[in-house]
Amino acid sequence: MDLEVNFKQKGENMKEYENIEKDLTKIYRKNIWSKFVKGICDFQMIKEGDKIAVCISGGKDSMLMAKCFQEIKRHRKMNFDLEFIVMNPGYNEENKDKIIKNAEILNIPIKMFETRIFESVERIEENPCYICARMRRGYLYEEAKRLACNKIALGHHFDDVIETILMGMLYGAQMQTMMPKVNSTSHPGMELIRPMYFVREEDIIKWRDRYDLEFLQCACKLTENSKYDENLSKRKETKLLIKRLKENYENIDVNIFNSVQNVNLSTLISYQKGNYKYHFLEDYDIRRNELEKGIK
Predict the structure, then answer these.
(1) Were both Cys, which of 45, 105, 156, 265 would link to 160 (CB 3.0–4.6 Å)?
(2) What is the DSSP string of 1-47?
(3) Rounded Cα gap, residues 16 and 30, in angstroms
(4) pLDDT tens digits, residue range 71-80?
(5) In a 3-state reduction of DSSP, which class is residue 81?
(6) Alpha-helical regions (H) of the chain
(7) SS3 assignment, position 185
(8) Which of 89, 72, 50, 70 is nearest to 190 (CA)?
(9) Is the pLDDT of residue 1 over 60?
(10) How far is residue 211's CA from residue 16's CA, in Å, rounded to a whole number?
């Protein structure tokens, strides 16, 4: 059963969300609002006529993203529409109620739809976290499509990006990043955007704590069983590693981020683009001959 929640608050609740909205472009203008706008502008995430499904998981990142979207919509510099969707993969009633309560506090008109992902994934032995993530993404695309949206927005932030870069290198033996926007291969015409790309997690935490807000941490039932916690542990290890490195060099996180923007292909042993995989030996002798001719 789907649930649509619209809020018209009065009294103290209205005062609370109005203060949060006002502070977003004043107190948090530099560290949150400006970086949110920068991500959207630098990567051309919003275009005229878009209808964006803002995907809310119940955590701090996606809830803040929803408030930022409401604010940028209010500026009316571009014509686009928003839907605030919440997928319930099988949360217990306490977690489900917490999402609804926070949406009420923040005055976010959510549309919650039900799935049975947790129930399905519990029966999967191999890579359940990967399967769960794929299923979640698929359901979000389908719901967005049902609501006539052409884009979904996820709340991944700066720290998610640099952790993903390092995790790929350390655990996956590959160089890749979490892209700011991606065309869906399974849902033609749909696009995924990440407007929080430049926003740091520490600033999201400061925003959350200023208003004593309590969001979902990880409500996944699988993480209650330690055998499913491997990927989560890897991310925690990577987060701690970056924190230790920053103690000696504070710009280490920025350098990790910039490393995937300053790639020199001529210094890589191999790289892949689409189905084509290049190895430096393919044209090594050709380039050597060209150099020798240049010297002569």
Answers:
(1) 156
(2) --EE------HHHHHHHHHHHHHHTTTTIIIIIHHHHHHHHHTT---
(3) 21
(4) 999 988 889 9
(5) strand
(6) 11-24, 34-42, 60-74, 93-106, 117-121, 128-146, 158-172, 201-210, 230-248, 252-259, 284-295
(7) coil
(8) 50
(9) no
(10) 9
